[in-house]
Specification:
6-stranded parallel sheet; alpha/beta; 6 strands; Rossmann fold; about 140 residues
């Protein structure tokens, strides 16, 4: 009989398998990766099946993008905290992330920010990666 894993359950969704692998390596010491998905539709299906505590969603994915996948998870009343992982540092995405999710992590800052983002969102706070300041 398999022992129960007390770590929080995390779903990872990104259409780049190298990013999925790297993200899983970052999180595995502290979190239990219950599923990975390569598009938004698969992410919603996996979230419904595995009921993760946290879903880390890439914003730009085939099928459903991360924002639409998050909307669908909310519509289905799934309780996972949602953290968006993205290369985009644009206000429109951040506004959508605040509406449908619990955190916004830039891929360039994933190594330093992702675990912090999970801790912050589990404490009820929205996490936003440090953004570059426009020089204009």
């Amino acid at each position: 009989m398999k022992e129960h894993d007390p770590r929080l359950k995390v779903l990872l969704a990104d259409d780049h398998t190298r990013v999925l692998t790297y993200t899983a390596q970052l999180l595995t010491p502290d979190y239990h990766i219950v599923a990975t998905a390569t598009d938004g539709l698969l992410a919603v299906k996996a979230a419904s099946q595995f009921k993760p505590d946290v879903a880390v969603l890439d914003i730009e994915m085939p099928g459903l993008d991360g924002i639409r996948a998050a909307q669908e998870m909310r519509r289905l009343e799934l309780e996972a905290r949602i953290i968006f992982l993205t290369i985009y540092d644009e206000e429109d995405y951040i506004i959508a992330a605040r509406k449908y999710g619990n955190g916004y992590v830039l891929k360039s800052r994933m190594a330093t920010d992702l675990c912090r983002a999970i801790a912050e969102c589990l404490s009820g706070r929205f996490f936003l990666s440090h953004r570059t300041v426009d020089a204009g």
